[in-house]
Amino acid sequence: MSRPGFVLEVDDRTPPLVVHEGEGFRLETFPRGTRVVYPPESLPGIRDADGAIRRALLEPTNSEPLPVLLTAGMRLTIAFDDISLPLPPMVKPDIRQRIIEQVLTMAAAAGVDDVEIISANALHRRLTAAELKDIVGERVFRSFFPQGALYNHDAEDPDGMLFIGETDRGEVVEINKRAAESDLLVYVNVNLVAMDGGHKSVPIGLAGYKSLRHHHNSQTMVNSRSFMDHTKSAMHHSAWRMGKLLADHLKIFTIETTLNNDVFPDSYGFLMKREWEWGVRDQASMLAARRGLAIAPKSVRHNLYQGMRAPYGLTGINAGETEAVHELTVAKVHQQQMVEVQGQSDVLVMGVPYVGPYNVNSTMNPILATCMGLGYYFNSYRGQPVVRKGGAVILYHPVEPDFNQLHHPSYVDFFEEVLSTSTDPAVIEAKFEQQYATDPWYIHLYRTSHAYHGVHPFYMWYWAAHAMDHVGDVVWVGADRKAVERMGFRAASSLQDALEMVSGTVGRSPSITYLHNPPHLIADVR
Amino acid sequence: MTSPVVHVAKHVLSGALLRGARQDVRTVARGWRWGRRSMVPRSAEPYVPAQTTEPFPTAWARTPVATVVRDGLQRFGLRPLMHSGITPTVRGLDVLDQLVGPVVFVANHTSHLDTPLILCSLPDTWRRKTAVAAAADYFFDTWWRATSSAMVFNTFPIERRSGSMSATPGDLLADGWNVVVFPEGTRSPDGWTRRFKPGAAFLSQTQQVPVVPVGIRGSFAAMPRGRGWPVPGRPAVTVRFGEPLLPLVGEGPREFGARIENAVALLVDEDATTWWDATRRAARGQTPAMSAPDTAQWRRVWDQTRPPVVRTTRRIWR
Q1: Rounded to whole angstroms, how far apart are CA atoms A262 and A266?
Q2: Which of A6-10, A514-518, B52-56, B253-257 has the lowest mean pLDDT?
Q3: What distance lies between CA B36 and its chain's CA centroid?
Q4: Do A6 and B47 lie within an 8 Å CB cutoff?
Q5: Hey, is the C-beta of A278 within 8 angstroms of any chain B C-beta?
Q6: At B219, which helix (H) or strand (E)?
Q7: A17 vs chain B: nearest CA distance in angstroms?
Q8: A-interface mutation test, from B28, B33, B53, most A Cβ less than 10 A away
Q9: Which of A103, A164, B122, B315 has a Cα at 20 to 30 A from A175?
Q10: What is the Cα A232 distance to its own chain's centre?
Q11: Rounded CA separation A131/A142 (Å)
């Protein structure tokens, strides 16, 4: 039986608590009275995942069974969430592989010949062949990749995009042409957090800049309260409008999956436990891991972390009509991640771990660290933010100014050129976004190499816009001072220093809440 | 860029590895209370999972060899140690002369002193054949604590959270062992007795063995919860054994449990006053309750931390 999440109040019996900070973690002693939000324990995974997938395809929600939708001679496109999900990547076989294999088995039985499989990476980097193979499995890869029928979505291909129309708010809906012209689009989703899935899948995953700019902008992001609640998120409202328009033009069969909270492999099992329940083995593992990471060269540490695979268990799978399916999905995600928190606090503390959606097999640069902390983790709430308006946020991450030149070329220029001019999301959007979004070199790298689109760092910055608008102070513990100064923040060497620095904003005895994340959680702030 | 080998070598040779390790070990030793009982933050207590581990085996502690070793430990180790910290007075042992074991000793429980007090008060023949029921989640949570308590005190685990008695006490009584039971389930936080659970009465009824009530006075004042050693000054503590009780025909565990509780209360009252006064009060149904009065916590603790007055003058009736 999985125990629910809860809010710990630090007292004299509380041992030091784990705080993630990039490719490492520390043990932090929090002031007494600090609230610590622990996620629910992992729900048991479905034992017969293949059986559950089959049932979902044969008994979908608000839709005919998949075999009925498959007919000989039809054009079938299967799109799937790219490498940004789940985090960390899951142990093989990936759940997407299992689903795609069953969809293809049904398609083969129905005599469908024209099948293409697309990684729905929007403006993310193209996946390498090995990464595609990791997700879809060897059998699917061998059957489709050499023939060019398994590929990455290219949002900058002038012949590969199709204008569908405009929403009643004038938002352009343009998606992948092959998907749009198919008789059936099957979308395979991994719903790691409540923000994912629903109409965020097709209208965003298979779209291009012309569509994305309508919701990926500072104004929309500031008005999304929060991303984890699609009913209160301006970004999701826009995506929903686009999705409804798309649904009138295209038959979409959505398959959404939910995962449990088994984020770390067994060797790092202590990171999944509540600290006071650590046994001798957990304490020894932690000490060994701490010393090992301290002694390891940076490259070894990086490879160690990036090689980590999460033994996620499947907690649910639903298929059928997008909106109906998504409601079931969100309920399951909430069951796994929701924790009730009473009231806001003056200070919010978060540890930013080593991986985010955009640095899988890559480097978490300062902009991605900001996006992860002030974007995703800050927005991991429902109701109201965990920290009060004008409060302070304290983050842990080294924030080293390291950039992966292959994956994040435009990030380097964004960091050096744009952020040195302004850190205000609205200002940089007005002044620089168009230039980066249409830069031919960035577009070339996006299309032919493995680079994120030129506009991508802007979007990362916009993710943090709500937090920057809401809080009065942001301090990074253990961070590179120059790097965080460039981004308009401050650095501290310890929690005590950070609290001292924010005392001008929140006073000398502020209420503090620490989100013990990962594993993933959503704070339901009442 | 330095090679990984050079990096590691530098780290080791500079002493950073050792310094960091020392610092980490110190942090963990302090935070996780090495050598002491681990504690759960108060706000996390409702979320502590129920123990599902197999009971710790204690049959080895009742083998003839272990019994001989324990006899030595108790006579030459535990008893002198106890007498060095407190001044025990034992009364009413004559009741045991009328009995042939096994019996269930039932006592009030306010201190870790209670178990050694009872054991060291018993005549040697009784002591060697006596086992003590101990909370599985407290005394059997680690192998070393379980082994040492089973060796020295002849403890065996009972599950107190589930409210059901483990099968072991009945087996022990059937094998001829006397069993010490503290029916409150835990030490009193303020020195006053909590309500007795009916487990001991049930045990007596099912095994058809008598219950010997034991009243302990002064152990809370000598070594309350939170202390690992008695307070200075060798405080006085009294242990008084009462007349054996047997379940009456048609009497349920609850009724019999209440009768046992009254008998223990009578012993405590008798110890504080005289047998005659206590007996008369009992006849009038006015035996002072052992349960805490409805006063402030500090007053309850204050009252119970007063050392008992032990009469040394000879009395006709004890």
Answers
A1: 9
A2: B52-56
A3: 18
A4: yes
A5: yes
A6: helix B219-222
A7: 9
A8: B28
A9: A103
A10: 18
A11: 13
The rounded distance, in Å, linking the Cα atoms of A244 and A176 is 16
Of B7, B27, B32, the CB nearest to A278: B32
* Least confident among A3-12, A207-216, A323-332, B164-173: B164-173
Write the ipTM.
0.86
Identify whether the C-beta of residue B214 lies closer than 8 Å to the C-beta of residue B96.
no
Output the pTM of the full model. 0.79
The answer to whether the Cα torsion of B67, B71, B72, B73 is positive or negative is: positive
Instruction: Provide the angle, in degrees to the nearest 10, between the axes of the packed helices B199-207 and B253-272.
Output: 110
Q: Could you read off the pLDDT of B180-233 as tens digits, one per residue?
A: 999 888 887 777 778 888 888 888 888 889 999 999 988 888 888 878 888 888
Question: From CA B285, how far away is CA A34, in angstroms rounded?
Answer: 52
Q: Which class is domain A49-259?
A: alpha beta
C-beta atoms surrounding B207 within 10 Å: 16
Per residue in A165-209, pLDDT (tens digit) is 999 999 999 999 999 999 999 999 999 999 999 999 999 999 999
Q: How confident is the model at residue A425 (pLDDT cuts 50, 70, 90)?
A: very high
Classify domain A6-41+337-525 at the CATH class level.
alpha beta
Span A458-498, pLDDT tens digits? 999 999 999 999 999 999 999 999 999 999 999 999 999 99
Structure confidence by residue, pLDDT tens digits, A10-25: 999 999 999 999 999 9
Nearest to A455 by CA among A200, A132, A216, A144: A216
* Token couple for B201: 């009465």
| Cβ-defined contact of B44 to A291 (cutoff 8 Å) | no
Which of A149, A267, A276, A166 shows the shortest CA–CA distance to A210? A166
- Given an 8 Å threshold on Cβ–Cβ distance, is B49 in contact with A3? yes
Domains of chain B in sequence order = 88-304 (3.40.1130.10)
d(CA B48, nearest CA chain A) in Å: 9
- Domains of chain A by residue range: 6-41+337-525, 49-259
Ramachandran assignment for A319, one of left (phi > 0), alpha (psi -120 to 50 degrees), beta (any other) = beta
Which chain A residues contact residue B28 at CB under 8 A? 27, 283, 286-287
Q: Nearest-CA neighbor of A274 among B44, B26, B137?
A: B44
Spatial distance between the Cα atoms of A253 and A57, rounded to a whole number of angstroms: 9
